[in-house]
Structures are given as C-alpha cells and as structure tokens.
Design goal:
The structure is a single chain. With 474 residues, the chain is mainly β. It has three domains: 155 residues, Immunoglobulin-like (Sandwich); 182 residues; 108 residues, TM1070-like (Hypothetical Protein Tm1070, Chain: A, Sandwich). Helices cover 5% and strands 43% of the residues. It contains three helices and 32 strands. The strands form six sheets. Strands 1, 2, 4, 5, 6, 7, 8, 9, 11, 12 and 13 form an eleven-stranded mixed beta sheet that branches. Strand 27 and strand 28 form a beta hairpin. The longest helix is centred in the first third of the chain and has 11 residues.
Length: 474
Amino acid sequence: MRLISKAIVGAAVATACSYVTASTITNNTLSRDLSLEGLQVTTGTTSVVTDALNWTLGDAWVLNDTVDFTTNKSFGSVDRHAVSFTCANGANNSTVFNIVSGSSNASNIRYSASTPVGVTSNQVCAIPTIAVLASSIASAGTVTISAAGRKAATLFTFDTSAAATVMTVASEYTVTLKTALNGQIDVQGGRLSFVNTAGTADDAGSTLQGNNADVFAVSIARTVRTQITSVLGSLVVTLTAGSSFGYLQELAGTGSGSCSVADGSGVAQATATGLLAAASLIPNPTSGSCTTLTATFLTVAPGAYNIFLGRANAWTANATNDAPFAQQTYSATASMSQGATALASSGSLNAGTWTINGTTVNIPYVPISSSINLQIFVANRSAQAGVVNFTAWNASGTSCTGTLGNIDANANGSYGTTLRAALQACTGTGWSDAARATVQLVTPTPSTTTAVHTSFGVTDTTSRQILINDTNGK
C-alpha cells in the first residue's frame, strides 16, 4: 500500500476548506476625487497617494503572517507607501505590519505582521497612505484596492477583502456649445447686415454688435477636483463655414482680396467672457476660398469663448466694395490642450445656420397634373443671386418643401417643370392624387427688384391660365 504524505493530505484538506471570515477596507475620510486633466499632464513616474485607509481584520493573525494589497491599476514607488501601520482594538492587543516587498508599476505590495504574536480579529489597521502610479490612472474611472492574508505556517490564503474604491478619476472640464449662429441675412439691405440682433446677447467686449453681427460661443464649465499637476491649458475653437467666409475676402476700398479678419468692412473677432485671455483669430486659407476660422485662447477658465462675425463698428454700406453674407450652415470643434497633450473636447458641434429673409411670393391654386404645363418665371433685377426654395400645402394642410434651383444676378429663371415634378413627388397625408396646392416661393433677391410670372397650360399648348401671385402688377 502506498503511503500518502500527511503534509499532502493536510494541504488538500486545507485547500478544500475556505475561511468564512473576511476583512474589509474602507476610506478613513472620502475616496480621493482626482482631475483627469491634471493626471493627463502629469509626466514621469509620479505617484499619487490615497487618503488614509482603514483595514478591519476578520480573523486572528500571528507573527509573520503576510498581507498582499492588490490594485486594479499599478502601485507607485515603494518609498511612497506607508513603511508600516498599526492595528489595534481599543486597549487590547495591537501589532505592527511592516512593508516587505513592492515595486513601482507592480499590481501588489506585501506587508508582514510583527510582534506581538496573536493579532485578534476585529482590530482596525490605520494605513496612512498607499501610492498609485499616476500614469496608470490617466483615464476616467475608479481605483480599487483589495487585501488577501497569507498564513506564515501553511501559506494558505485567508481573511480576504472585497475591492474598495480609494480614488475616482473624472474630467474636471467640459466644453459645450453655448450659442449657435442664427443670423437672418437681410436681402432688402443687400445681404450686408442681419434682420435680427443676434450678436447682442453675448457681446463679451466685442465691438461687433446689433444687426451688424452674429456670435458663435462655446462654454467651459469646471467641476473642481484635485489636480496632481496644475492644468494651464489653452483652448482652440475652429469654426468651419458650409461654403466660405466670403465676406472676409475684402480689402479696404477694393471689395476683394485675401481672407482677413480685419481688412474691409467684413471683420471677425474672438473674445472671452470675464477673462483676460490672449486670443488669436486666424482664417484659413488666407487666399482662395476662406473656409475656417481658428481662435486660440492661451489661458482658460470657466466662461464663454466667442467668435463674432460681422461688420466693422460704425460701418456704413458701400455697395461697390462690401461683400455680402452667405446663406450657409456652420460646424465647429473646441478642444483644450496643454503642450502636446489633448485634454477636454467638445467633439463636433452644430454651430448654427445663417438664413435669408429673401422675397416671399404666394401662389394659390396651383394645379398638379402630368398633363399640365406650369410656367414659373422669376425676373431678378438685382446684383444678388442664390437659391430659390418652395413650400407647398395641399387641401389637408400637409406641407412639402424643396429647392427649385439657382437664380443668377440680373437674370430670369424658369422653374415650372421642376416645380411640377416636385409637387407630384410630394408625400404625406392628402398628397396622393392631390389636384391643387398653394405654393410659396422664397427667392434670395430684394422684393423691390423681383417679379414672378405664374401660369399654366394644358398639353395642347393652345390654352393658358394666369395664376395670380404676390408680385403681379410690378
């Protein structure tokens, strides 16, 4: 018969058994609330220490029993950990644990129980600090630490603890949209100013105000957290035009030239609310089509950061030299950085739209049929050009919108065939087999220089009926 080592049997039995007691780790105060940005700009092998921790024993310990503390991140330099800590239960027995192993970038550190022998359960160990490597926590989340005892005599694990959160890492700064561009370009004034006073709500020291300006703004908010390294970042705001910042391509006195935020009546400014921030505003490209404006604020703090678009202060219209505003949609990004390190960012922003008031022409009782020839002629007697849009309503009140095409400066445009096809393609309640519609045209031209002729004829081309519209009699 084979003899089985008592030691092996004992080990097997002990392994099969589990300890029902467990230790616990709690924060002596609160878990540390750390700034993500402050960690992102921290370099080298910097260690971040926890607040004081309490480790409550759930079992009896003896001399030379050890405890391994484990983290979900990486521990810092060993010289930043508490060299020792004491466990006590009122006036009863107490003992000291001394650090015996650990290294920077490791996931565990070990302490060993020293005299006296016989550390009882329910003793509370006051651990002053445990260090975590800063580079291992440079992302949002939590830092946890757990404990597992190890018997000196048998090397069996005992008195383990669940993972306890000892630090939280979250963004200290958020960059969001504050104000979108919403200017309505005044066609009647040559598209050189706005109908609404979009720029006055966020003046922030700008000289561009009232109907001459519109403003885009982002906001920085701060939730104060502990900064391991001071955040002294800059903010870059990039505003992109759907077509171009053509109104900035003026040279004073000439009406054309390279893209500039200061030459001519078309100008732009960058300002910050309540902050003396050095700001630069750079158009790109400076020649050809001017598509982006980049504002750089060298220091940041909570508040609004603005890009104003408009006309120079005390501007008066000069139809020869001034370039008009363009109807278009804008996009933007805003991001903080410190040196080469990217910090908080807004992501892609819908920066708003410039609309146009134009000339509105209503045409009632427009027939809808493939056997009907529509004649829609727009006479533009101005130097302005752009897109002709329509909105139609059927007898049920269901609307349908679309674009009919462009109208050139000092030219006529024909849109009958396009409108007929568009009306036949309208969908929704009441549009199936609809026989008539009320149509509203919007042209990007002044009403005083716009005339619209509307009529229809049948396929025999010998009969025609005039459709009354708002411009009849001009």
